[in-house]
Amino acid sequence: QVQLVESGGGLVQAGDSLRLSCAVSGRTFSRYAMAWFRQAPGKARESVAAISRSGDSTSYTDSVKGRFTISRDNGKNAVYLQMNSLKPEDTARYYCAGRLMIFDMHNTYSSEGQYNDWGQGAQVTVSS
Fold it and tell me: Cα angle at 21 between 66 and 25, to 5 degrees?
C-alpha cells in the first residue's frame, strides 16, 4: 500500500492555470496506474484524467480535454495535473488515486471503484 499526498491547489481566477502534484510514498510507484478525480459540493466524484503505469497512455473526461494534462515522473514518485484555462465549473476538491498493476503497463482506468489508494484531496476554487 502507498500513501498519496496532493498539493498545489488554491484560489484562482477564470482563465488562470494551476498545477497539482501528488507525491506517492513507497518503492512500487512505477507499478501503479494513476488518476485524478474531483468532487464538487453536492455532486458525485468524477474522473478527470488517468495515466497508465508506463505513462504512455492517458485519458481525459470530455470537459477538460485540451485544457488539462496528466503526467508522471516515476523517478520522483509523483503524478501531476496541469490545469490551464480554468473555469468556475472546475471548482472542486481534486483527489489523486492509484491502482496497483502487476502486468498491465499501458491501459488507463477511469472508474472510481478501480482504485484502492486515495489521497486526502486538494481544493481548487476558480472565481469568475
Answer: 135
